[in-house]
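Incident log entry.

Two folding requests arrived from the same account within the same minute. Monitoring flagged them as a possible duplicate submission, but the sequences differ. Recording both here for audit purposes.

Request one:
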Amino acid sequence: MKKQPRKHSGKTQKIEQLRVSQFFRFFFTKWYALLFTMFLFFHQPFHPIHAVRYEYEPPRIRQELFTLPTEVLLPTRTKNTLTKEQFTANSIMIIDRESGAVLFEKNPDESRYPASLTKMMTALVAIESYDPSRVVTIQEESQAIGNTAHLQTGEQYTISDLLKATLIPSGNDAAFALASAYEGGYFAFVQRMNQRAKELSMNHTTYLNVSGVEQEGHSTTARDIATLARVAMKNEVFQEIVRLKSARIVEQKSGQERTIESTNQLLSRIEGIEGIKTGWTDQAGECLVTQTTRDGHTIITVVLASDDRFGETRTLIEWAFNAHEWKMYQVE
């Protein structure tokens, strides 16, 4: 009887096809793996000698980028210290401007109303944003409350003169005029002030207005103010304005000049003082930030919520220079 060829079921054929597929997949995978391993072994850039050469021959730009100073000049205390209790100020900060070293502090991170110290940031943002020769027309800013520079509706002033009117007599109207001239308007300017604060790591500062009028949530700390002062006083335009006891501003349409006077009573009364800003409101109390340079060494003082900002600042400045010597330290 003739033997009939065996018929495979559909299931059996699928199993045999799967086995063949697995065999070829295994065969080619192994060969590819072997070839790739041989390529890595013989390919020259991966040779251990080359790896060492690459590691110890970094690009020149990296060497310059990570160069560290070998010495640093720091203030060293040589005499008696101050006590926090001898000051009425709620918060105090004294720093060496160059190194950032802290010479004295009292409640440096306690949240306080900044009053017109706000205008330090207002001015810095304006300096960084505007052409100083740009002319701005005064509008509703003339109705500003609090301390003003007596700007009138319809008058025109350059950005340069508005900066002077903001920082020297601490004019709220001038601060509002600077903010209103910003692309996007007043609130966009305030937003930029907060962005700038973040860029400077002023992590406990929030600005809600440009003049410092009391507003819930508008706050800062002595440490943040010292940080801002340290940056602002390295700006030549800012520095030149805040050291002035008085200045003349010009109304552009009429050509009329007038004199504005500084609110900082310590200017020219303390050796080496160079500004920078006063502030006061009922809730903020008396506030004052100063920069003083003697014998090539510069300190910044911050006094918040004081009963005698000028007297206490004078005491702090004299103590800082009399009780410290600046010495060079080697950095290893």
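Request two (distinct sequence, not a duplicate):
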Amino acid sequence: MASQSQLSTVLVDKSRVAQNFGAAAASYDQHAALQRDIAAELREQWPQLPETAAVIDLGCGTGRDSEWLSRQHQLHAVDIAQGMLEATTARCQQSVQTHCLDVLQLSQLPVTAEALWSSCMLQWATDMPAAAEAIAAALAPSGQVVAGLFTAGSLTELTQAWAAVDDFPHTVSLPDIESIRQAFESAGFELRWEKTLHTQVHFENLAAVRGHLRGLGATNALQQRAKGLMSRQKLQRLNNALESFRQPQGIPMTWNAWLFKAEKIR
């Protein structure tokens, strides 16, 4: 089966990420209960800014947070998936400017922002130090970041189940908290607040797990992913492996997240 050293070299296919999330625009909100909980925590940390302040929603998704932010500020909503930007435009109408960009392309925005919001997106950054530098460059002096992202240990049950099936990578290797912290400190930020979350979501069966992840757009976007349809035999092996984790509430899926607020100090 796949070793840790092999997994560390797995790369994310950004075009596939965009395709997956764009396809999930219509279904995302009905599967995003945990994401809404994280956003609710982040809203408590959002700074008081004037209505004229330019702010960024990085990884705006379907625009639920963009709608809230656009009531207060001049909002620039950024997402890699055009389908998500279309959903944001439909939700927010004329109160938001949308930009189809990756985090490393933030320099293309027509503004320097006072603050940046990012909920459940930064785990897809393939180079966290470069992402932190790009965010810093997009912010004015003393600009603030309020962000939450999924971290190492998430979906551990699914990762272990797949390891019993084949040697291909099926889940992305998520960043650990310390590496994220170091990336932002090196980019000139000082941490003002942080919180870690650990939760399990339970599912009736494998079909429910796959439907949930597909509905979120969180399906395999790795460059080294297996190509073609999954055989019935592989599906059965995956099901058997997942069943070994079953609890009275159902099959668990673990999610770890780190929420933080940081200020650009240099």
